[in-house]
Amino acid sequence: MTQIEILKAISHRTRIEILTQLKRPEEHFADQGYPVAMGVCAGQFDRYGLSQSTVSAHLGTLHRAGLLTSKRIGQCVFYKRNEVTIAAFLDELDEMLSLDGALRSDTVQAKGPLIPA
């Protein structure tokens, strides 16, 4: 995927929340009834208060951008973050946009997070 496609995929708050929660699935999806090592069953994302088709569209967008992997097991499609793609994208973005490491760290500490928790 290109950087532009990934940026488009993460340009929606719900998709950012999905990626953030999948970062630590054991904290957010421990009640799913399946080991989180398998991934998170698509049905677990109903907590966003969105229709199943809307959640499916968000998951599909992230999957097509290469940010998620999926595996169907029985009736459920399990999703995991694609850490290789995410790390490569962050490295490319860092290379394109950052100052040197020391200045970047100071700037982030002074400004705080871009997306409030």
Automatic annotation (TrEMBL):
Keyword Transcription regulation tagged: yes
Gene Ontology molecular function terms on file: DNA binding; DNA-binding transcription factor activity
PROSITE patterns assigned to the protein according to its UniProt record, in alphabetical order: HTH_ARSR_2
SMART domains cross-referenced by the UniProt entry: HTH_ARSR
Keyword DNA-binding: yes
Domain HTH arsR-type per the UniProt entry, residue ranges: 1-101
Database matches in InterPro entries: ArsR-like_HTH, HTH_ArsR_DNA-bd_dom, HTH_MetalResp_TranReg, WH-like_DNA-bd_sf, WH_DNA-bd_sf
Keywords assigned: DNA-binding, Transcription, Transcription regulation
UniProt xrefs under Gene3D superfamilies: Winged helix-like DNA-binding domain superfamily/Winged helix DNA-binding domain (1.10.10.10)
PANTHER family assigned to the protein according to its UniProt record, in alphabetical order: TRANSCRIPTIONAL REGULATOR, ARSR FAMILY, TRANSCRIPTIONAL REPRESSOR SDPR
UniProt name for this protein: Transcriptional regulator
The organism of origin for this protein: Rhizobium tubonense
Organism ancestry: Bacteria, Pseudomonadati, Pseudomonadota, Alphaproteobacteria, Hyphomicrobiales
